[in-house]
Amino acid sequence: MYFVYSFLLSIGFLVMLPMFLLRREKYASGFRERLGNYPEFKHDGRDVIWLHCVSVGETNAARPLVEKLLENFPNHRVVISNTTKTGHELAQKIFADQAAAIFYFPFDFKFSVRRALAKYKPSVVLLMETEIWPRFIHEAKQSGAKVAIVSGRLSQRSFARYSRVKHFVRNVLADVDLALMQGEADAESLIDLGIDANVVSVTGNLKFDQLTESEKSDLSDCFRKQYGIDGKIPIVIAASTHRGEEQAVLDALEMLGGERRLVVAPRHPERFDEVARLLEEIPFVRRSAPDSVLDRTAEVILLDSIGELRDLYGIADVVFVGGSLVPHGGQSVLEPAAEGKAIVTGPYTHNFADVVRIFGEHDALIQLPPDNKDGEMVMELYDAFLQLLGDKEKRDNLGKNALAVMKKNSGATLKTVGRLQNIFDSEQKQLTHQSPAS
Q1: Pick the catalytic residue: 25, 33, 40, 58?
Q2: Which residues contact 25 (CB under 8 A, 6 or more apart)?
Q3: Long-range Cβ contact pairs of 70-75 (< 8 A, separation 24 or more)
Q4: Distance (Å, rounded) from C-alpha 35 to C-alpha 30?
Q5: pLDDT > 70: what percent of the chain?
Q6: Predicted confidence (pLDDT) per residue in 67-105, tens digit
Q7: Pick from 73, 347, 398, 403: CA 20 to 30 A from residue 420's CA?
Q8: Catalytic residue at 58?
Q9: Hey, what's the torsion of the CAs at 226, 227, 228, 234, to 10 degrees?
């Protein structure tokens, strides 16, 4: 079973190799580590918790979890892995004082996975959301580690993909000791794929706990000062945008007229230059550029930086959440909601279907209807901006409702750590049982 998987993975890797070489800026920084070549890691006698966060969203969501893990399990160290470059850079920034190591997740080959496990020797592995890497899960279990999924979710697309190889996935999931899922639908989907129902619990979405953090960055104050943001001119943030969405936002705001400023934050760093070219005929500045006199008057600020968007939602009057005007499946609305902001999203939000449904039921966002003909989506976006920028009361109510939804659904971190206590207890019992024979 695993031989066939490794064979197919090898073919896929060879097919993708030219892309790795052509897009070195995105992949080269982590390539050697993902093959199992990690820097030295000194063990100090404490057990290791390996927490895997795929990208920026999972890394941000892990902040309160890491804090509680270190607080509740002080005899352990936490190491953090990421898959994407952006996630890795953010983890290095926010977990520098908490994580014993921050590195790239290995490619799912036997040799690279075994090298990584031999290097860090985790006693507990936590996989954020639902990262089902068959070889890694199997080898981690074989090494003696406890394996848990935390804040797990299964999109319709992922469920359909896994269902095609249901027998194989069932065997992989047999190595999972605990699956803590975001919602009932996620739990039912995982059980349908073959996991033992006794190891599955619903603990909620860790991303709802972002508003409970005690420390806030002063980045928004610095941003206000540098770019002359004083509350007199409305600020629209177009967050995590994908190709085609920047132009739609620009067109909608141009139809709106009047004074307003736009902060554009493309989802993928490799598109920063592409979006800059799109903005060439508009007075705009790049966040990465040196300070200039244009900073305080530019109509558009291109946020071509990593890890800053989350701390800038506080300056916004309206937030458009991207990945939703195109059939990508949407990006998370939870970060702007944690700041009590009025949120607009497109119709394609299937990756966050339950979350968007909850917000919609509580009048906590505006979701645009499906696009039925050319140009209609721009008009719908224009109408949403017109409603919100022209009506402060409506804007404030939408933001208050969003914050209320966040508060009502918070608590996933404490529930998660509480359920994890079981595998930490069983780990300790196993060590105590083994100690006389050692």
Answers
A1: 58
A2: 270
A3: 70/98, 72/417, 72/421, 73/49, 73/424, 75/46, 75/47
A4: 9
A5: 92
A6: 999 999 999 999 999 999 989 999 999 999 999 999 999
A7: 403
A8: yes
A9: -150
